[in-house]
Amino acid sequence: MTDEVTDDDALVQSFLDGDDAAFEELVRRNEALVLRLVRRYARDPDDARDLAQKTFVRAFEAARPAFLRPFGERAPFRRWLVRIALNLSRNHARDAGRWTRASHSDTDGLADAQPHCGQGPLAGLLDAERSARLRRAVLRLPRRQREVISLRLDAELPFSEIAGALGITENAAKVSFHHAAKRLRELVSAATDREE
C-alpha cells in the first residue's frame, strides 16, 4: 500500500508540473475505490457513477490549491480523494432526504464472487433476502459506524487510512468497526427471528 501511496503522490506532483495524463492515471487507479464508496449513498448505479465523476471533477478543480500547502502538510492523495467522495456522498444523501443503497444486483459484486455451483432459484432467492436484510441493518447503524463499515468492507481500506479519511484515530476506527459488526449481527438476527 505504501508504494501505491508513493506512486499516487508522484503522479500528483507530475500533474502539478503540468502533466494532465498523470491525473488520468490517478482516476484509473482509484475509480473502483470511489465507486464502491459512493454506492452506499446512491439510489441507483447511475447516481453512483455521477457521484464518482463529481468526486474526480472536484479533486481535479481543487488539486493545485490543496496540494500546494506549505511545509508538506498535504494529505496523501487517496485519503484526500476518499474524504471528497464521502463529503459529496453525504451531501447527496442529505439533499435527497434519504440514505439508500443501490440495488444489490446492479452494483454489489458479492453475487459474482460467490459460486452458485448448481444452486437453484430458491438458493438465489434466499441469498437476495439475506443481502436485503443486511442492507436494511446497515442503514440503521449510526453514521460513523456506517462510514467505517463502508470504508473497510466496500473500499477495503486498512484502519489507518479509514482513520485518516474520517479524521479519527486508528483505534477509534477499529472500535467503530467492532461495534458496527456486533450491532449488525444483532439487527440481522432480530430480523431473521421476526420473519420466522
Describe this structure in words.
The chain is an all-alpha fold and 196 residues long. The protein folds into two domains: 1-100, Orthogonal Bundle (Rna Polymerase Sigma Factor, Chain: A); 120-196, Winged helix-like DNA-binding domain superfamily/Winged helix DNA-binding domain (Arc Repressor Mutant, subunit A), CATH 1.10.10.10. It has ten helices and no strands.
> How large is the count of helical segments?
10
In CATH, the architecture of the largest domain is Orthogonal Bundle
CATH homologous superfamily descriptor of the largest domain: RNA polymerase sigma factor, region 2, helix turn helix motif
Q: Assign a percent range to the helix content.
A: over 70%
Give the class-level CATH name of the largest domain: Mainly Alpha
Overall number of strands: 0
Describe what is shown at a glance.
With 196 residues, the protein is mainly alpha-helical. Helix content is 77%, strand content 0%. The protein has helices spanning 2-16, 20-38, 45-67, 77-96, 104-107, 110-113, 121-139, 143-154, 159-166, 170-195.
Question: Which characteristics define this entry?
Answer:
2 domains, mainly alpha, Rna Polymerase Sigma Factor, Chain: A, single chain, 10 helices, Arc Repressor Mutant, subunit A, 196 residues
Set out the fold topology.
Layout: H1 2-16, H2 20-38, H3 45-67, H4 77-96, H5 104-107, H6 110-113, H7 121-139, H8 143-154, H9 159-166, H10 170-195
